[in-house]
Amino acid sequence: MAAKDNAVAVDKLTEAQAKAELKRLAAEIAKHDKLYYQSDAPKISDAEYDHLRKRNNAIEARFPKFVTKDSPSQKVGAAPARGFGKVAHSVPMLSLGNAFSDEDVTDFADRVRRFLKIDGELNIVAEPKIDGLSLSLRYEDGGLVRGATRGDGFVGEDVTANVKTISDIPHRLKGKNIPAVCEVRGEVYILGRDFIGFNKRAEKEGIQLAANPRNFAAGSLRQKDSSVTASRPLKFFAYAWGEMSAMPSKTQFGMIEWMERAGFATNPLTTLCKTTDELLTFYRKIEQKRSSLGYDIDGVVYKVDRLDWQERLGFVSRNPRWAIAHKFAAEQATTVLNDIEIQVGRTGALTPVAKLVPVTVGGVVVQNATLHNEDYIKAIGNDGGPIRDGVDIRIGDTVVVQRAGDVIPQIVSVVLDKRPKSAKPFKFPTVCPACGSHAVREEDPKTGELDSVRRCTNSLACPAQAMERLKHFVSRGAFDIDGLGDKQIEEFFEGGLVMSPADIFTLQKRDARSLKKLSSREGFGATSVRNLFDAIDARRTIPLQRFIYALGIRHVGEGNAKLLARHYGSVESFRKSMIAAGKGESSEAYQDLNSIEGIGEVVANAIVEFFKEPHSVDAVDALLKEIDVLPAEKVKSDSPIAGKTVVFTGSLEKFTREEAKATAERLGAKASGSVSKKTDYVVAGPGAGSKLADAQKLGVKVLTEDEWLALVGEK
By C-alpha distance, which of 599, 598, 603, 576 is closest to 589? Predict the structure, then answer.
């Protein structure tokens, strides 16, 4: 992930620091350009990418002598991907500078006025910024001769055959006012409903799902087989141009109107504004309508209307002075709450889930968002005080959805003035929707406070809890069985094939009728069944920490499972000790469990309750008959980092983050996610940001990857 904070403020940088950081930024930006433009697989959000560019430009502004022809500020995109012919753009396809606030937009308009030395009217065209793939279309004598992607801005990919399959792109231009040579430019995109439909089909067919509409559109346009592109419902909006032998209009808005007459689809929301206030009003209007447009946008673009003024304004670096992109907050979007669905988890928790009109947030299409618990819906915080200014959440509300990194999306606010008159406060159920049993909020015996979560009381027979426990059992951090995901678990559970963890490992031993029942399911032919059995067999041996985590005991995540595995060493010792701990808090086994550093009373009690239930012990014993559990790897107490706390930051190049943490923990160190006075080492790779800054501020020893490997004696 790109760094969001930097170790040294730009105005504090020395020349040596500036030169070194520009080199690092150039490499990181080039890497992300390649991922975005060539592979259609970005690894960071637009906001993080913009942060890198902004930092680079700020340093170059202070140290202009370090600007080179290879600087990110002088380039756009990435070189064309291999496999397509190259097309040199007669007029470069450059990108826009960004505005992130109202002040930035005001500054843009003021800069234009100062440059042109005008006090009067300044017309500016405002249009939604489509989140798709930029495309240039060359027409000669009215006929389409070539389609090319932007590439690095100077050389793109020849995708002519694929372009001709897109219905929005005319093969011959209409009308009389058609220049002999004209290059029309715009954006290839896909409607949200079509993207969702593709992923639903892909899931059924067992093929890879598309990450988001932008990636799907880009990947579809760059297919080697144009018939594949033709099968995808791609769309195109025209809004710009390249080489033109004659100009059909003298204004930006006039050119948009000409494109429409010539046969192109143009965005009907494009508006001519006369003041900065009108620009900002348009921006807010589009932001509000964002979720209902049907296609993804990530901001609004402003362009000076008069083309002669555009020519006078010209370019600075890679950006035109006459245009700017006003970006939306990358991690938030506005949409409509269609429904609230109650899901029952493996611990019996009733979790409300928001069912939304699909909207892209931070590069991911979001249809569901967490509502946490019933208090959150009522606008009551953990401390009992009001949140969201006391505004509750109701079905039909227009809401703001937020997503940060890999965190589950959540609703952060309600647009109250858009609330329907028919909307009523949501009534949270007091019975389990899966089994009809009572659902209660447990009371803390010490404080008398109610748990924020309402739980089903029928832990043994509730089908939803049993199914969710099985989903957890096969999840990535647990047994991680390839080909056995949530969908398959639901099918097998509902079909009576898998009702407990042990059933997974006895599938192959079942009678012929059961196996026939399995192979008759959609998507489960003989090959699929054989592959599934192979994947199950590959997990018959598993490390102790994964086994403990897979049991799905409340409060026992991967971290606590690791602590328990290290302490007890073997599955036999763990099982015996947990059953003994259930004899009472005064028992030696319970005292031993509660004394493990990191395992408090709450966790200890949850483990004891699990093993006090005969049904749970029977399930564990049945499972152990089918698998082998490896003893916990012994920690080296004599290693140079035993007892130390280590933080890894930046883009590690010689090992993955998980490998680094595993090595540290195997050698007796604690791998932490944040830097504090108790941190002993920070291992920093390229792109290290705020954590590196914190380490330097606190005087924590910072190591390179090579220095870390030398310290721990690893190759």
Answer: 576
Q: For residue 289, what pLDDT is reported?
A: 87
Q: Pick the catalytic residue from 75, 117, 129, 303.
A: 129
**Beta-bridge partner residues of 429:** none
Please, what is the Cα angle at 587 between 583 and 588, to 5 degrees?
135
* Neighbour-count burial of 521, counting CB atoms closer than 10 A to its CB (0-12 exposed, 13-18 middle, 19+ buried): middle
Q: Output the six-digit token pair for 133.
A: 């793939």
Q: Taking the CB of residue 635, how many other CB atoms lie within 10 A of it?
A: 13
pLDDT in tens, 567-622: 898 999 999 999 999 888 888 888 888 878 678 788 888 898 888 878 888 889 99
Q: Residue 92 in 3-state DSSP?
A: coil
Q: How many CB atoms lie within 10 A of CB 630?
A: 15
Query: Tokens for 107?
Result: 């500054």
- Decide yes or no: CATH 1.10.150.20 for domain 463-539: yes
Residue 649 neighbours by CB distance under 10 Å: 25
Strands (E) in 510-642, as ranges, are 541-543, 628-630
Structure tokens at 706: 């090579």
**DSSP letter for each residue of 622-656:** HHHTT-EEEPPPPP-TTSTTTT-EEEEES--SSS-
How many Å apart are CA 41 and CA 43, to the nearest integer? Answer: 6
CATH 3.40.50.10190 fits 645-712, yes or no: yes
Average of pLDDT values for 662-687? Answer: 83
CATH topology classification for 543-630? DNA polymerase; domain 1 (1.10.150)
The CATH number assigned to the domain with range 331-457 reads 2.40.50.140
Does residue 85 contact residue 160 with C-beta atoms inside 8 Å?
A: no
> In the CATH scheme, what is the code of domain 10-75?
1.10.287.610
Distance CA 599, CA 582 (A): 16
- Domain 97-327 and domain 331-457 have a common topology: no
User: Which CATH architecture is the domain 97-327 placed in?
Assistant: 2-Layer Sandwich (3.30)
Are 222 and 370 in contact by the 8 Å Cβ rule? The answer is no
Please return the burial class of 697, using the count of CB atoms within 10 Å of its CB with bins 0-12, 13-18 and 19+: exposed
309 touches 118 (CB < 8 A): no
* Contact in structure between 367 and 485 (CB atoms under 8 Å): no
In the chain, where are the structural domains located? 10-75, 97-327, 331-457, 463-539, 543-630, 645-712
Q: Is 129 marked active-site?
A: yes
CA–CA gap between residue 333 and residue 327 (Å, rounded)? 12
Distance of CA 562 to the CA centre of its chain: 27
Q: What token pair was written down for 259?
A: 């494109």
pTM for the predicted model, two decimal places:
0.48
Strand 323-327 to 97-99 pairing? parallel
